[in-house]
Design goal:
This protein is of the alpha+beta class. The chain has 4 helices and 13 strands. Strands 4, 5, 6, 7, 9, 10, 11 and 13 form an 8-stranded mixed sheet that branches. Strands 1-2-3 form a 3-stranded antiparallel sheet. The protein has a two-stranded antiparallel ribbon with strand order 8-12. Helix 3 runs antiparallel to helix 4. The longest helix has 16 residues. It is globular.
Length: 249
């Protein structure tokens, strides 16, 4: 989660029930387009921009690249693009967020932790980067992204198992960021003993698990700036799925 928060700062300023997975693996290829029913005003439908060169500006926890692009008008523009730093190939350019729901109490589970960007505590979802260690999958039906989601649930919420739904394909964080986000909803995971759980990152000291958050409370957190944009977006995807499942009205 700390690594995901740092990226936001850089850009903007098996117990219990069975698991259900929609299998979408990691992919470095994107196909951008519009739906058949979309209405477009102005501009070009086809992407005729051309990348002329890329120069590395910074490469530590985050990588900053200057991308020079020739526009359709033949004008030249420079863009600064943020991605995950190389770090010896241990971290991919993908992240996961996990929304936890209790079907008995009809409430969510959030994590509250220190956010270095605002130098204070905020609410969020279990989240983290997809790393090389997640390539060692736990079953034939799991991939690295799913494994990362399971690990983050265990590390940050001290929960395991449950019924899982993938809520979106890998989605880029914003206009100038290449990191892709995958959001999951897990219903009724089981608690695990603190000493048996996977360890948290050292920088996540002080992290709290907050239970019993109703859908209305969650919306209040989103609209009152008590969650990040990414956390709020992921929560909205989860609430939409929960409405579809009849869990919330």
């Amino acid at each position: 989660m700390r690594k995901l928060i740092m990226l936001l700062l850089f850009c903007c300023l098996s117990f219990g029930l069975p698991s259900i997975w929609n299998n979408h693996g990691r992919s470095n290829q994107f196909k951008f387009g519009v739906t058949a029913s979309a209405s477009i005003r102005g501009g070009n439908v086809e992407n005729t921009h051309e990348i002329l060169r890329e120069d590395m500006l910074y490469n530590r926890w985050r990588k900053l690249v200057n991308r020079q692009v020739q526009l359709p008008s033949k004008a030249i523009a420079d863009f600064e693009i943020v991605s995950q730093g190389d770090r010896g190939g241990t971290v991919s350019d993908e992240a996961v967020l996990v929304f936890v729901w209790n079907s008995e109490t009809k409430t969510a589970v959030l994590v509250r932790e220190y956010m270095p960007s605002v130098h204070g505590f905020m609410n969020g979802l279990a989240a983290g980067m997809v790393e090389d260690k997640h390539e060692s999958t736990e079953s034939e039906t799991s991939n690295a992204v799913e494994t990362a989601a399971k690990h983050e649930l265990e590390e940050e919420c001290r929960l395991k198992g449950g019924t899982w739904y993938r809520l979106c394909l890998p989605t880029v964080m914003d206009k100038y960021t290449t990191t892709r986000l995958s959001v999951y909803l897990v219903i009724d995971p089981e608690p695990i003993n603190e000493k048996d759980a996977k360890p948290r990152d050292e920088a996540e000291e002080g992290m709290q698990v907050v239970e019993g958050i109703s859908a209305s409370q969650l919306m209040s957190y989103i609209t009152s700036c008590e969650m990040t944009v990414v956390g709020g977006w992921a929560a909205q995807l989860a609430l939409s799925k929960l409405r579809e499942l009849g869990e919330v009205s």
